[in-house]
## 1
Amino acid sequence: MTSKPIDETDAVADCEQPDAVHQARLWINNGWTARVIKNEDDEGWAVEMIKDGEPEPALVGPWTMGRNKKDPKPLDVSAFNTLVKTAAEVLRRHEQQLHAQLHKSLTLATPGGRLCITLDLVADEDDPHALLAAHDEAGEQLAQVRVDAGFKLKLASASAWLADGFRRPAG
């Protein structure tokens, strides 16, 4: 019995989408599009990675020249998989940064135990605000109030809120 050697296109075929595209300068598969484009900054080439449904590329980076030093190196399964992994990591880090900007928390030690004080910014164009909340060690919410979007969560402001019986801070 002879077996056919497995090449990269066979390996991809098992898990690709029915509408997948595998061309030298365009790969579309598994929710991502890789497109090799002329680099606007110089004479070379770039590759952009776009996640399905997103208006902007998640990643744009330089792309290798081909053997003739004129045309771009063709995309292949290995390069595409690496680009998907890198672009997904860029998106994940962006989401983490956005989460860190919109969600702040700190812990207060009180005679009754530790309290987790959180500030969640609500990025609403018409009505930007934040929600200030207190949770006990078991995670049960003790209080929540709406505050201005510019409210700064610091140890002093959290302690003052606690001392004031969790009433809505002024201003």
## 2
Amino acid sequence: MKGRIHSCETMGSVDGPGIRYVIFFQGCNMKCLYCHNRDTWNKNDGNLKDLDQLVQDIESLQGFYSRDSGGVTVSGGEPLLQSEFISGLFDKIHLLGLTTAVDTSGHVALTPEVKLVLSKTDYILLDVKSLDPVKHREITGVNQVYVNQFFSYVKNLNTKIWLRYVLVPGYTDSDQDLIKLIDFINEYNNIERVDILPYHVYGKEKWTNLGIKYPLEGLSPPKKENIEHFRNSIKDSCRVIVK
């Protein structure tokens, strides 16, 4: 079996617990204004990689991942667009005694293949773009139908969720956005951690290299005090780890 993959990172430290082998899958069905992996959008780009060869590479580095609940994270792009491949991968990763994580926006149909992957997932890194339907469409170019269905489904799983929220000035950083986020977190019993990630421009170069104008040209990262306001408010209102 082969998967279409953009790239791999062998020593990931921010995409789940421990040290992780991070696989960035090719193809995405969102068009986020601030995407830092713009070169993953086209589902026909990237490289075809054989499942067994990928597992052999992971196994050769297994010693680095076996501590502190380390393992393999699939990211993208949107990895769940290649659920059949990931399902087979996760079976083999668990045989190595490593943990599995899916970094996803949730903008996928809840097919049997997607549900099967989620049943084999130890950590869901849930990338919440916006909880406001108008802002969500403005940021991502798509509506919230699939996302809301996905959110409802994973709420009832035993899988641990690490929620990720990018603080984008003028889009996701208002007090109303904060209230919606706190209410959302408190609806779940399986959200273990919340990462408030400040918007940055590090991915702009990829847009430029592709000959595409960066949509948020001139937008500055959020102020430190607003980042801390979000983090401290969530700490005070939710029983989760906040980073």
## 3
Amino acid sequence: MNINRGMTKKLLLAAAILVARTGALNATSIPINLGPTRVTPFFGTSFNELDGVSLNSQSLSLDFVFTDNFVRLLPPGSFPHTGEDFGIALILDTNANGLPGFASGKGFIFDEAGNPLQPAQRLGSAASSAGAIVLGLFPLSDGAPPDANFSGFHVNIMLPNNPGFEITDEHLRLLGGRIHGFPSDEGQFGIGPHIADNGSILPLFAFALLALSATSKLRART
């Protein structure tokens, strides 16, 4: 129990250091637990730091800090690899009746020292008739290195002007993007730290062995 408490304190301290180094004054820190090491096309979680925030055209400065692992983008030429349209989506549910209005803003991903890995870029923006506000950051389309490891991201958001309504629930989504050709059209990304720099070649090697084995059997039969 004491070991777990000590580890939690270290993680919180690391998160605080990261937030301080991003240079975002008065930013709200939102810790995100990515879970265990793996390669995946999708990650999703919820958070509640914005519950009750009203829609009054105010600006929000937010630092999302990965508290356990980091995200590794897998470059073309690796197997698997990350789609160029890899996206970070923020979904803000509200109690608005119908369209809540459109938010806007800019954002960037940062490394373990809090240094930006891309210039601050305009966020994609959408809204739904069910009262949701959606914002998207696309690092690979906006100058991030194709093999980047990032430990979080920063966004500055301006909420829509829709007085009387407020944020009721929040969700974060990481989407691997789309690729074309063999072996799949679904991009993937790594959650570190123990992910090979060029992705895992074992599935490709296994596939090659199976293909060679099938070819050998076919020739033997003919």
## 4
Amino acid sequence: MTAVNGERLPELPTESLTLGNSLRVRLVPLPHLQSATVSFFVRVGSRYETAQTNGLSHFLEHMLYRGTEAHPAAHELNLAIERLGGTLDAATHVDFTSYDLTLPTETIATGAELLAEVLRQPLLTELSTEKQIIREEILEELNEEGNQIDIDNVSRQLLYPDHPLGFSIAGPLENLDRFESADLRRHHTSHYAARNSVLCVAGAFDPQELEAVIHSHFEGMPTGGSIEPSIVPRDIAPARFAYVHEHGSQTDVRLSFHTPGVASPEAPTLLLLARVLDDGLSTRVHRTICEERGLAYEAFAGNDTFEDCGVFDFGASVEHKKAPLLVETVLELVDELRRHPPTEEEVDKAKRRYLWDLRMVRDDPEDTAHFLGSSALFGLPERIGTMAEQVARVTPSDIQDAVRHHLDPKDAYLTCVGVLDDALLSDVRGLAGT
């Protein structure tokens, strides 16, 4: 039991083991729950791709649903999983992909067997139907001229030009069109290997039964090699402004700054900075942008982090003519924190809300699995108490120093997608110094 700022945080009862093939496993029995989640985390995503393979990780994730040797059709596979009482969910991220299966406690062992089957024995055939589905997904991010209009994708292209961190996760249509089963098989062999992955089971289950199932069905996964991300060079983005003309009733705006990654000593400070700015309706971003100035229905600030780098974003969708005022307001928020640290009350509230979130991790088996699984995958602290203690040590002055160091307006990147005439473009660019 860890006590931080008066909060009592019980540690997760974790059993850690490594299989003979180097697969890291975390078992977290939580008998007070009525379900359990088996989750698999693997280093595969757009960051590990090239311009020619961009989108392959996402396509492969989709194809794992389309059948295995024992369940050769998507319908058969989905039916087998749903008969157990759950649904297999998966998500491809920039730097990892996750698979989650939450089930009643009495079927979790069989579910773990099925997940191993999906991960180890995909057929990877009959690509045409899945290509049509993903094509529709990609088209949602493009306009009629085929230009990228998703503000997050445009922003990352600006921040990381010619680097995989600037790729979209789904990739371009031309790549999707030419991917074949052999491409998927090579990608699967390279990435879906034990040394590159973590398996986590959390919730109500019999640890001895699960451990036996895991040894039986996951130990045969090939060991493979460790996948490392491509290095992000310094001064990667010479341009600091991107604008895409897209008809609509609003303009999407992002103001972004480069920050350190999750392994940096500054990571807890940046986490609290994000919560001081945007963690509830009483915090600075919502109060200033929405309540006081009425610029947007909702606005946000947050730190998007990877292993070795990150991006701190401010964003909102506003009426076109309000775009300059939104940029001005965000810069005022940054300037205020550069001149004055946040109050002790703000920081204390941010810490308490973070500690509450940590405490509630054990209420949801999927949250537990993701906390431990992703931490193990990237070599981060796996103890709730360690995370709590790191955050508890952050002071208002630390937050001010981080803002001064990383949120310098002269280093800001501005992205707009919408309708801005020449005068509005000149105004927003002048305000952001781009």
